[in-house]
């Protein structure tokens, strides 16, 4: 097997591509406008530079669109974030190359200009409270966030919110197509 000489220009392109591809993962957060809500736990955002990201909300797993409560999960998330600016905190790639992060949005408030408000609403936590997502335990969540998510899921179960109104809701990771 012969090895070809790799040109310095090719090497430079590989370095530039690698830097561009992985640089957003090292950021503390990504800010962008939500252009599409894919389902109850995934969105597409576009940042101020026009770069598009598909983001999976960390710490939750919502029903797929074809599952019971899948459309309701999508609708609820859409009301929270569609066409609004969000911050994706702690962005990282999962083992499949999917961008994960905690998605924060400003509260709906008529007194608040859309881009000048602090983004204090944790969309994943709100999906769990509404009974429209399972808490997906992850080591990337802080102990405090894990406790909040766990308590929210427990309360949703007790009050039979959303998917918890069913006797045995089937999580997406066990759903058979």
TrEMBL record:
Residues 28-166 form the TNase-like domain. SMART domains: SNc. Pfam families: SNase. The keyword Hydrolase applies. Keywords: Endonuclease, Hydrolase, Nuclease. It comes from the Bacteria. InterPro entries: SNase_OB-fold_sf (IPR035437), Staphylococal_nuclease_OB-fold (IPR016071). PROSITE patterns: TNASE_3. GO terms for molecular function: endonuclease activity; hydrolase activity. The keyword DNA repair does not apply. This is Endonuclease YncB(Thermonuclease family).
